[in-house]
Amino acid sequence: MAECRYFPDPPHFGTNIAEEALFGELLLQLPEEVSLFHGIKHFDGDREHEIDFLIAHPDFGIALLEVKGGQLRAVGDHWEQFSHSEGAWHREDPLEQLGRNGRWIVAMLRQKFGDQIPPVKGFFVAPDAAVTRRAMIGGIHRENIIDHYQVSQSWKIISNELVDKLEDNRFRSASVWTGQIAFLREQFHAYQNSYEEVVQSTTNRGLAIDALSRNQASLLEFMSDNNRMLIRGGPGSGKTVLAVEQASRLSRQGLKVGLICYNIGLSQYLAHTAGSLPKTQRPEFKGSFEALAALWGVTLPLAPTARVARDKFYRTEVPNIIQKRVETLTHDEKFDAWIVDEAQELHPGYWKLLRDSLRDPDNGIIHAFGDKDQEIFHRDELGSGDVDWNLRLKWFYARGTLKRNLRNPRTIAKILESLSSRAAEPSGPHEGFPPEYVLVPDDANIHEVTEKFTRYLTSEYHWEPRQILVINVGEKSPKHVEQQGNDKIKYWKTFLKSKDVFYTHVSVVKGLERPVVVLVLDEFQAESKIEQQLYVGLSRALEDVIIIGKQKEFDQLGEFFNHFIPSAFNDTFA
Fold first, then answer.
1. Cys-Cys with 206: which of 46, 285, 549, 564 at CB 3.0–4.6 Å?
2. pLDDT tens track for 385-422
3. Which of 167, 187, 155, 181 is nearest to 42 (CA)?
4. Quick one: average pLDDT of 416-432?
5. Nearest 5°: phi and psi at 507?
6. Residue 196's pLDDT band (cuts 50, 70, 90)
7. Which of 458, 262, 299, 291 has its CA nearest to residue 377?
8. Residue 78 pLDDT > 50, yes or no?
9. Which of 179, 246, 185 is nearest to 217 (CA)?
10. What is the DSSP string of 18-60?
């Protein structure tokens, strides 16, 4: 049998005996129509990653191999590898490596070929270990693990798995992937031959991030003489990071500082992040207004279940109830400074109670961070839907603006720019994936389709469930209701620790993010601004974003819909 084509030629293994031995085995097994790639480097910001082996077959698709030689053992949801030089076991995560590499390959192909891409499947190869268990091991299904006794049958195992994957609806209309494989070969050749250039470019991006962080901190220093300060900026501009930093700085000065926000979900993140600071840098209070009421011994009544009544309760009645307690606070119970994140959410009643709870109401510190374009509902004082800072902040505030979006990939940041002229300038280190849409048939249940799609994201796009955030714009989805239960605090704490897909609503997700956002356009509320719901929802994505909806909702998007390409998942409805 003629050898397959392999790249680079000759391959370079250095001291990696396991990969060199596997390469020899693969040359004996792979048919000549296969392209075998070894040691493909790629970059995530300023970090380098590597694909050990990539096998591309023009009829079957693509297999990624992550190779770990030597002594291995499975411990819970991960693997450990023994280092003889150190005499100790070290954690390894082949599942994460395969997922990251798979996403990179899929993204590269999607940008060039849209939904006409071959199946991509990952395999963990342990050529020196015997794997006897039959179930999932270290997070990887047993059929996707090739151990010492199976190395001689590697291609048989891989090809069978790829053939099984070809039976999915997504791949029925495609048969030959010669063009896609040739494209990958060109891309890999460019990556390997421009190694120094790529390293330099990623280093420059890392330096740009550092410079932006320094500039942001410089803004705090520049405005440090102002006891009343408002920092504005769009999604990804670093408002929350700066809010935590400012709370830390003031705490170091010996001031009694409160770090507060309206959103319970974000408050849990603030409590977790600021709570991990050294004691001398930790704000005295960190959380939501409900937590502040509990601190002061205020028992709030249960919120109404009807959405409009519930909204009015939190916006007007809650601050009025807390205000009564503020009027009885002692000097020791009051604060020297308040740091407010997502400040656009606060109505005048909240600003009043914060000011009155300062030890020096006239000169005490209130530093606010917000984005007026993230006020979703028509709930302001004038009924216009716009946030009027002059009405809400009736005392003099020095103002600064963060103008660069560092967090979101440029594909998403550019979409945000189209929704708001005030959106931060795209400055992230990644171009990002092409945003996609899933068109749900009119007779299908959109929530059931969404659950099916999240499983598709993990199987086809190699995202892990913990990396996916599903955001609804209508009412709470059944999965949201199920996850939240009767304990909102516990629900939001799971956001920080959960390994599962997280379901939430666009009205409560500001300030939080995950790598993948699935924005479900189940129904736009009558009084809401569609652009602002999109602005908030899409900006939660760190890597990839997909919108799901029926034709009616997509029609409401107008020309904005042209930013999205169809997902290959749409083929499953055929």
1. 46
2. 445 555 556 666 788 888 888 777 788 888 888 887 66
3. 187
4. 72
5. -75, -15
6. very low
7. 262
8. yes
9. 246
10. HHHHHHHHHHHHS-TT-EEEEEEEEEETTEEEEEEEEEEETTT
